[in-house]
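Students often ask what a holo structure prediction actually looks like on paper. The answer is less mysterious than it sounds. You provide the chain, you provide the ligand, and the output is a string of discrete structure tokens encoding the 3D arrangement of the protein together with magnesium ion.
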Amino acid sequence: MRVLKFGGTSVGKPERMHQVAELIDDGVQKIVVLSAVSGTTNSLVGINEAYKKEGIGAAHLLINQLEASYYPFIKALYATQTALVKGQKLIEEKFDFLRSFDPITFDSDDEKMILAQGELISTNLFVLYALEIGMDAVLIPALEFMRTQEGEPDLDYITKAVQQTLKQAGSANLYVTQGYICKNERGAVDNLRRGGSDYTATLLGAAASADEIQIWTDIDGVHNNDPRIVENTFPIHELSFAEAAELAYFGAKILHPSCVLPAQKSGVPVKLLNTMAPKAKGTIISRNTSNSVGIAKAIAAKDNITAIRIISTRMLNAYGFLKRVFEVFENYKTPIDMITTSEVAVSLTIDDNTNLDAILNELISFGSVEVDTDQTIICIVGQFNQQQAGAAVQVLDPIRHLPLRMISGGGSKSNISILLDTTNKKEALVALHEALFKEAIAARLAQ
Ligand code: ADP
Ligand code: ASP
Ligand code: MG
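The corresponding structure tokens follow.
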């Protein structure tokens, strides 16, 4: 079994859906995970905001606008009247449902239900098309088997439930399911956070013991820096699970922050491929990777970071101090990303400010507390063994002119992270890129 995931742009136009069908029609049995049509989830976020803040009129206006975009879509998607009529009925039903919410009673369960409609629409439309062209396709509802427990996917449950669903669905060549959406422990519709379809794919790959997980997107693999910010980036053909996990967690948008973990645990290789250029080599993430030339392999950046410094003389020679500090974050279910310590102070970062005030209130009992918001973590992934003399100097030298708030290395062999003010992010990414990939860029430009 193979698991293939196609992102929003890959199903974002009728002709793209046609192309996806052609790509997967090779006779090999597979589970295909689809995202919502690109732009739809953002529109659904806007609809939620309108229901919450502006009222029913504003919400309905946005719903009608989004609905109108789907009629030309299905007209171009289907060739037969029968499929078109079914597609129209589906769109009408889904959008009537979106219009049925009440701003007065509107709650977070309603919000999640609204967010789920994007993937429910795209998968239903796609399966209708696959059947129209005679493919042996069946829709398997993700809400039957994707389950979270306290916000995290429950892989044991998913593994059992997906086998059950596949059995019930009967034999088929192509199983299509929704990315991103799930149910939580209360049985309410929930999601795996933005970009979560990647996570669905790797969870399913692990659950179905797939021989390969393919993530199809709009770029030819993981690039060595953020191509939206830096020029002359290029794809990295091989990454280890650890390297890919660091890049995903520290901001490479191409992968959901947690999606490498299920594949890593189960050892299923993940390929990143380009729907717009299916022949391009892409990136393979696996246990077997060759070392790259030079120390750095890739750079990623994560914004909206808050840094907290706790200064306390009680830390001097004391044991249990960090435990008590970490407990505060644990109590508020707030993950810590980066940490550096000195004898009398500890600095750490968080990316979720929901409980910041309450956390700070408790931290004050340890000593004085300083907070810096609007920070960015820049993560440099590469070969940073202790034996690698000069690695830190090479990484820091290109950004010597920029003020750095935190520097962290030695935590893993594959990562050095730097925290700086977000206003300096672009300059840092460009400077690091030009220095650390100098030869590779020159070689590519000379080709
Ligand atoms: P999908 O909708 O297919 O999930 P995403 O938009 O989530 O696609 O991810 C692909 C996009 O991620 C690319 O178009 C690119 O702009 C952006 N991106 C950011 N960092 C990287 C990187 N290091 N390598 C490749 N793409 C990246
Ligand atoms: N549609 C969801 C989003 O836009 C999930 C995904 O695309 O992976 O975040
Ligand atoms: Mg994505």
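The pocket of magnesium ion (ligand 3) is lined by residues 7, 195, 198 (CB under 6 Å).
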